[in-house]
Specification:
transmembrane helix; 14 helices; about 80% helix; transmembrane transporter activity; mainly alpha; transmembrane; globular; ABC_transptr_permease_BtuC; about 350 residues; ABC transporter involved in vitamin B12 uptake, BtuC
């Protein structure tokens, strides 16, 4: 092969590499749109994609009566299935982004909001507001969830630092915090709530999108966009963290400030999602690894594709959760755990072999 041919081949490979993230992003957007459209049609009511589109167009145009469907079907699509499916997409996207950021910040492939106890802390904060009325009405459920998430992560960082601060110690501290806050949540629910409230809260804590409304979708979307923008703005900084804190500092990164900003951002997003859907585990663990294998470690590509992959994943997991035992509903967090635990073990084995 001549030097000119080699140069042309290398140029072609570089061009294909540049196009690959765009192609994956386009495929993700198309897959997400198709998933939402189809998932809304799945259920006991006979509703087609055309009906869904008709309802959406009619409502966005300001005239729900213009939809060529019955009022009951219109209500099923617009008030029940569509906000639930969109909230599933937002939660999946947000959890996947949080997992990718935490894995990079902590240089630990096992980091995610659930394993590190952030979701459990957010659940405790939300339950304290709902069941005990902590805050006297001045503190909202998302506010309580945020304070719980921040408190849990602060405890994890304190414990891991006292134990040496290694990646393994961070995960162990996270597991300890998760058990602590899960126990606190169960104690509060069992001692302070009536039987009916207990059943409802426990089902929500396992991860449930059954109460999704447009307010939840709007709040979750706004927080997701804000946090994703902040994380993308620190994309190169996150790339530098892959080489360690000392290397990042040598490259001009203000390590302590950057870590604080990104940890607070992920805590805020986790809190918003937990307040709307409960604790949904392992999404932030599984999806970043799958996407990273396709796109590489660069966060400018990784984070948007993680968001798309997480959204598609949770849309279908929620669809399965609400239909597999119909008319009963399985908490979506149970399904993600059944999928995530084997993936967690696989990552553990890969981490051990890499050493």
């Amino acid at each position: 092969m001549t030097s000119a041919s080699r140069a042309a081949t290398a140029s072609g490979i570089r061009a294909a590499a540049r196009r690959a993230p765009l192609l994956w992003a386009l495929a993700g957007v198309l897959a997400l749109g198709a998933s939402v459209a189809v998932a809304v049609t799945v259920g006991p009511a006979d509703i087609g994609v055309a009906d869904v589109w008709s309802v959406i167009v009619a409502h966005l145009g300001g005239d729900p009566a213009a939809a060529d469907v019955t009022p009951i079907r219109d209500g099923i699509v617009w008030d029940l299935r569509l906000p639930r499916t969109l909230l599933a997409a937002v939660c999946g996207a947000g959890l996947a982004v949080c997992g990718a950021v935490l894995q990079s910040l902590l240089r630990n492939p096992l980091a995610d909001p659930f394993v590190l106890g952030v979701s459990s802390g957010a659940s405790t904060g939300a339950v304290l507001v709902v069941v005990l009325g902590v805050g006297g009405g001045a503190l909202s459920v998302p506010g309580g969830a945020f304070l719980g998430a921040v408190g849990s992560f602060a405890l994890v960082m304190l414990l891991s630092h006292s134990l040496g601060g290694t990646p393994d110690r961070v995960v162990l501290a996270g597991v300890a915090a998760m058990q602590l806050f899960s126990s606190l949540t169960s104690f509060v629910v069992m001692t302070a709530a009536d039987a009916e409230t207990t059943r409802g809260v426990l089902f929500w804590l396992l991860g449930s999108l059954g109460g999704a409304g447009w307010t939840d979708v709007g709040t979750g979307t706004a927080v997701l966009v804000l946090v994703l923008a902040v994380c993308l703005g620190h994309g190169r900084t996150l790339d530098a963290f892959a080489f360690g804190q000392d290397a990042a500092s040598a490259l001009g990164v203000h390590v302590a400030r950057t870590r604080l900003v990104l940890l607070c951002a992920t805590a805020l997003l986790t809190a918003a999602l937990v307040a709307s859907a409960g604790a949904i585990g392992f999404v932030g663990l599984v999806l970043p690894h799958a996407v990273r294998a396709l796109t590489g470690p660069g966060h400018a590509r990784l984070l948007p594709l993680c968001a798309l992959a997480g959204a598609v994943f949770l849309v279908w997991v929620d669809t399965l959760a609400r239909t597999v035992l119909a008319p009963k509903e399985v908490p979506v967090g149970v399904v993600t755990s059944l999928i995530g635990v084997p993936a967690f073990v696989l990552v553990l084995h890969r981490t051990r072999r890499a050493r």
